[in-house]
Design goal:
The structure holds 2 protein chains of 2 kinds. By secondary structure, chain A is mainly alpha-helical. Chain A is built from 11 helices and no strands. By secondary structure, chain B is mainly alpha-helical. The chains are: A mainly alpha, B mainly alpha. The interface between A and B is medium-sized, with 15 and 20 residues.
């Protein structure tokens, strides 16, 4: 129980910090000093102290959107092992639950956007779900590949020690899967080449447009949930790249958190050096990522004894 | 053997890059990198590579990785073509086709009666996939230069297939292939120039219609 509480505390407390690191990296690239690393926390506190206005056209679904957008990533985080210790919850096949918890939150975010009756938000919802259709096969091909390498069907055992020997046997497949998942990570968390998290007023945006009508605490929940989602999806990637665990839990936790900060810096660099691609180019990039992970899986299926 | 398979994976990824890139320069570089990577391969596949094999590899790498791409880029500059690829079949469908082709190549290669030392290696699937991508590139792109790039890919596929024979007669096969390639590129360069002089564009679409 204590383990689970600590796990949740790390997720909830450390997630906004990643956004701070990304913001700081982008500022460094632009030659600014940038906001403080704790700025996302200040933003959340500010939002939670505000009141909120509800449109008369909305129903209960409108509030279910932010609630699920926060609760589903937090629940998914319980399935992912951080550092050396296993995840608080794990059972055979929990990777399917992991994938569909995010789908659930996406469904309710899109439903809440449609509930406002605004055509603008409906457009964002349409974009979000159509790009998610292309991102999901990539995720599953990658999960299948990793499951095949490690012979395990729960995230807790998949992302543990057997993976280090998997790197030696089938490094090419893992590199392909990691590259594909990084693309999906950027798409799912609406970072730059896919979406610009800084804009709130452009026709091309995808995720942000769906949450325009949320204000105050419910918008805070959406932002916090997005940060947790980034943390959880990033954690899976970091565990695949660095599947180490040492005797001391503190050391492995330190290695894990260091990896997360590195990942945030990497995202910041990608956001600084790339421009957002045109909307018609997004499916192409996602299909390429899907091909990469499918190819990684294909190599494995073939090289099996 | 592991390293050779890794290089072949890189070669297959270059197929996808050449098919998915919007800019011609990227496609030319993908074909160049693929050629360079593949020319190192004989050293890894051969049981005891001698000086001969080393020279061959260096020559092939210089030709495919530097000489031919430079010629192509020079051709691009000389004839002032636009940088976009302009496909008949869009980028996403071509990528899908290449993915399906690669999967089929892997499935098919497992059914071929190969020599025991080649069973399980990526040589045959990579060769078939590269051949297929080359075909796709040649048939579905509008610009004549892209068709040359497709030909380069096709030739790379043939080269990989030739690796199966490397123990038997390496030198003869490879020199023959390289000479063919260079001559073909020269001829294509001349043809490109003629097309441009005649039609003041490299769009092969215009060759399909008769003039009044």
């Amino acid at each position: 129980m204590g383990n689970a509480a600590l796990h949740l505390f790390v997720v909830l407390a450390a997630a906004p910090f990643l956004l701070g690191v990304i913001g700081r990296t982008k500022a460094a690239f632009a030659g600014r000093s940038g906001p403080s690393l704790l700025q996302p926390y200040h933003d959340l506190v500010r939002l939670f102290r505000k009141g909120s206005v509800l449109s008369r056209t909305t129903t209960g679904i409108f509030l279910a959107g932010p609630a699920l957008a926060f609760a589903a990533p937090v629940a998914a985080s319980l399935l992912v092992p951080f550092g050396g210790s296993g995840a608080p919850v794990s059972f055979t096949g929990d990777l399917v639950l992991f994938a569909y918890l995010f789908a659930l939150s996406r469904f309710f975010t899109a439903a809440a956007a449609l509930d406002t009756g605004s055509a603008f938000e409906g457009m964002g919802a349409a974009r979000e779900v159509s790009f998610a259709c292309l991102a999901e096969p990539t995720l599953f091909f990658g999960l299948l590949a990793v499951a095949r390498i490690t012979g395990a069907l729960s995230l807790s055992t998949m992302l543990a020690h057997p993976l280090s020997s998997g790197w030696l046997r089938s490094g090419a497949s893992i590199v392909l899967v990691v590259a594909a998942w990084f693309v999906v990570l950027l798409a799912e968390n609406s970072r730059i080449p896919f979406d610009d998290p800084n804009t709130h007023l452009e026709l091309t945006m995808i995720h942000e447009v769906m949450v325009l009508d949320h204000a105050g605490p419910s918008f805070g929940l959406v932002l916090w949930g997005a940060a947790v989602k980034l943390f959880v999806t990033g954690a899976v990637l970091v565990r695949i790249v660095m599947p180490f665990g040492s005797q001391s839990p503190w050391l492995s936790a330190l290695v894990f958190l260091g990896g997360m900060v590195l990942l945030a810096v990497l995202i910041g660099i990608v956001e600084s050096v790339m421009a957002r691609i045109r909307l018609v180019g997004v499916p192409q990039l996602l299909v390429t990522a899907c091909l990469l992970s499918a190819f990684g899986l294909l190599l494995l299926v073939r090289s099996a004894p | 053997m592991y390293l050779a398979d890794l290089l072949l994976v890189v070669a297959i990824l270059m197929n996808f890059l050449a098919l998915g890139a919007r800019e011609m320069r990227v496609c030319i570089r993908a074909a160049a990198l693929q050629g360079a990577v593949l020319s190192i391969l004989p050293l890894l596949v051969h049981r005891d590579p001698g000086v001969n094999a080393l020279l061959m590899a260096a020559g092939a790498a210089a030709m495919k990785g530097i000489l031919i791409p430079t010629l192509l880029q020079k051709a691009m500059r000389d004839v002032h073509v636009a940088h976009e690829v302009e496909p008949y079949v869009g980028f996403v469908p071509s990528l899908f086709l290449a993915g399906i082709g690669t999967a089929l190549a892997i499935l098919f290669a497992d059914r071929l009666p190969l020599a025991p030392e080649h069973v399980g290696s990526l040589i045959v699937p990579a060769s078939l996939a590269t051949l297929f991508s080359g075909f796709l590139l040649m048939t579905t792109r509008r610009k004549a230069i892209m068709q040359v790039v497709g030909y380069l890919l096709l030739e790379n596929g043939v080269y990989v297939f030739g690796l199966l024979l490397i123990e038997a007669m390496s030198f003869l096969v490879e020199v023959g292939v390289l000479l063919d390639l260079l001559v073909a590129i020269f001829i294509m360069g001349i043809v490109l120039n003629h097309i441009r002089r005649e039609f003041s564009s490299l769009d092969t679409e215009q060759l399909a219609g008769l003039r009044e």
